[in-house]
From TrEMBL:
The species this protein was found in: Neorhizobium lilium
Function: Transcriptional regulator of the ttuABCDE tartrate utilization operon.
Entry keyword annotation includes Transcription regulation: yes
Family, similarity comment: Belongs to the LysR transcriptional regulatory family.
Gene3D superfamilies: Periplasmic binding protein-like II (3.40.190.10), Winged helix-like DNA-binding domain superfamily/Winged helix DNA-binding domain (1.10.10.10)
The protein, known as: HTH-type transcriptional regulator TtuA
Domain of life: Bacteria
């Protein structure tokens, strides 16, 4: 039966496919050419399919062999990749989880800086918008969208959420607009770029307009809508329109002038992005170092 075929048989098959030569496959695996031939023959018998066509010393894969090779190679590549966390080479391995927007807009540069400063530590970043994965205790550190409380994580504020519409200077220049003088009704009439809400507490442009003291009377209809917040910000940077900016996450773009705030009505949501450390276990030295690095960024 298929489930009883040993993994070693597939490793021999993989080597034979890569070299198209049983002798060279045997040398890589430190077994004889005859042993390779026997294992391939046994695999063919167990699968009930011919895997190689033999013409003298020349080998070629049958259609069944080609399909199996593609699957075996993908599986072995996956297994090799999965073992990387256990091959630290003396480096401490720590894991941190964060949402896609935080990873793309805020965290990536800081992790690069940390890597340059900490050659003995490897960091694994889990990027996900699933709350259960973000808060999983399998992580050493987490960055959570929160009001600051969590039963399993001690949270420290990294970025307060203050939302304001933003656009590129090029977009405003083409429209002949002055950013600071724009009213809500005028902003609502521009090319709006929105994003999907993966969390009931997230606020997109529609909700932002609705929370203003004097919301626009016209229906809010975005021209573009993206699956992630970071894609919406990228579109605004390209000059495609107006999106809702979280000041803390896009601070570098605002500081450089790549994006400009519109109007004078920022919204403090009461939420923010918090760095979490485990409530019921101690951090490793490397995780503690990364924790301090991120708090000081």
């Amino acid at each position: 039966m298929l489930e009883r075929i040993p993994l070693e048989a597939f490793r021999v098959f993989d080597a034979a496919c890569r070299f198209m030569n049983f002798s060279r496959a045997g040398r890589e695996l430190h077994i004889t050419q005859a042993a390779v031939s026997r294992r391939i023959q046994g695999l063919e018998e167990q699968l009930g399919a011919k895997l190689f066509t033999r013409r003298g010393r020349n080998l070629s894969l049958t259609p069944e062999g080609e399909r199996l090779f593609q699957r075996v190679r993908a599986t072995l590549d996956y297994l090799e990749e999965s073992l990387e966390p256990f091959r630290g080479g003396g480096r401490e391995i720590i894991s941190i989880a964060a949402s896609g927007s935080v990873s793309h807009l805020w965290l990536a540069k800081r992790l690069k800086d940390f890597d340059n400063e900490s050659p003995g530590i490897s960091v694994r970043l889990l990027t996900t918008d699933a709350p259960s994965e973000l808060a999983s205790e399998a992580n050493d550190l987490v960055i959570l969208y929160s009001t600051g409380e969590h039963p399993r994580w001690n949270l420290t504020l990294l970025v307060k959420e203050v939302l304001v519409p933003v656009a590129s200077p090029g977009y405003l220049a083409r429209r002949g607009l002055e950013a600071a003088t724009l009213k809500a009704e005028e902003i609502a009439a521009l090319d709006l770029i929105d994003y999907e809400r993966f969390n009931a507490h997230w606020i997109s442009l529609r909700q932002w307009f609705g929370r203003l003291p004097h919301p626009p009377k016209a229906r809010i209809t975005p021209r573009l809508s993206f699956s992630t917040y970071s894609l919406a910000v990228d579109a605004a940077l390209r000059g495609e329109g107006v999106t809702l900016g979280s000041r803390g996450l896009i601070a570098e773009d605002l500081g450089s002038g790549a994006l400009v705030e519109l109007g004078t009505e920022p919204l403090d949501t009461g939420y923010g992005y918090y760095l979490g450390m485990p409530r019921y276990r101690s951090l490793s030295p490397g995780a503690a170092r990364l924790h301090q690095h991120l708090l000081g960024s």
